[in-house]
Amino acid sequence: MLETPLADWHRAQGARMVPFAGYMMPVHYPAGIIAEHKACREGAALFDVSHMGQAELRGEGAAAALEALTPADVQGLKPGRQRYGVLMTEAGGILDDFMFTNLGDRMFLVLNASRKAVDEAAIGAILPPSVTLAPMPDRALLALQGPAAERILATLAPEVAALPFMGVAEVTLAGGSALVSRSGYTGEDGYEISVPAENATKLAGALVTAGATPAGLGARDSLRLEAGLCLYGNDLDETTSPVEAALNWTIGKRRRTEWNFRGAERVREELDHGPKRLRVGFAVEGRQPARAHTPIQSGAEVVGEVTSGGFGPTLGAPVAMGYVRPDLATDGTALDLMVRGKAVAAKVAPTPFVPHRYKRASRA
């Protein structure tokens, strides 16, 4: 198992470490998952996401080159801004979901830990000679999330308070350079902070001293589920298209006229005529969570499968996401989730289950 630059720091905080995506990662600290989840909703939680892949695309034509693999509008992204997108397979499935940032003279990418080697190979294969992909294994990545995140991080770098959602700035933190984006994976306001590995422990300590609560994978998963956000390997994979995954909004308007990205034929067909299945949310009755791979039934017929599910601490009730036929995807549709062979009543429900609280840019 690999370790992030913060592994010793996690152990010193009493973290329970578990294998995840090839790394030993903290699943929770002594206070527990529920307390860490609550800390993020009410204050600020600090997550180590250094297992994620970080890389830069450098050279003239980098944005145009990346568009061969994604339906996102990369060339239209303004400097100092970040965007979410998907990388595609030839067959129109999702190779990975990722974040990309325009830093003016280069593109900055954040890739999923379990897919970064696959992504880097796919990206490298389509680049022209003028563009190079430079992985950044010597960087750590921290996520500070929650309504108190702005106040806490601004004690170290006041300029981050002015960043809007998906805004990016290069600042000085813990005595070194840092790339800060106002984004995250919890549905709350917050930041993701890329720093040199050698500065990670100092920065983590400073953020906890300023009021952040260390949080692990358990709370990160319950938070993203309540926020209705996809997890690659569960809700997204190479068989699933962005249309099936209800990620149509990641397909740029200009890209829908060009159709020059990998997998475009399937995407265009599904946009025109509808997909065979759709990702939906489920409000689950009772207290029993329905985990991934739970069959979804309509009467005696199996009509889909849960891809993510668990108990929502903020809601005080179980929630889930999964795929069903389009005729069963309307909000309020009653279905059964077969938990350990027993039918648990559920209804299709809109996501996010807990409203997002991102800091949007003000409008004149």
TrEMBL record:
Record keyword Electron transport present: no
GCVT N-terminal domain: residues covered: 6-253
Residue ranges of every copy of the Aminomethyltransferase C-terminal domain listed in the record: 279-354
Reactions performed catalytically: N(6)-[(R)-S(8)-aminomethyldihydrolipoyl]-L-lysyl-[protein] + (6S)-5,6,7,8-tetrahydrofolate = N(6)-[(R)-dihydrolipoyl]-L-lysyl-[protein] + (6R)-5,10-methylene-5,6,7,8-tetrahydrofolate + NH4(+)
Gene3D superfamilies: Aminomethyltransferase beta-barrel domains (3.30.70.1400), Aminomethyltransferase fragment (4.10.1250.10), Probable tRNA modification gtpase trme, domain 1 (3.30.1360.120)
Keywords of the record: Aminotransferase, Transferase
Class of this enzyme: transferase
EC number: 2.1.2.10
Gene Ontology molecular function terms on file: aminomethyltransferase activity; transaminase activity
GO annotation, biological process: glycine catabolic process
Keyword Acetylation: no
Chain positions recorded as substrate binding sites: E192
N-terminal signal peptide: none
Domain of life per record: Bacteria
GO cellular component: glycine cleavage complex
Family: Belongs to the GcvT family.
PANTHER family: AMINOMETHYLTRANSFERASE, AMINOMETHYLTRANSFERASE, MITOCHONDRIAL
Protein name: aminomethyltransferase
Organism: Roseomonas mucosa
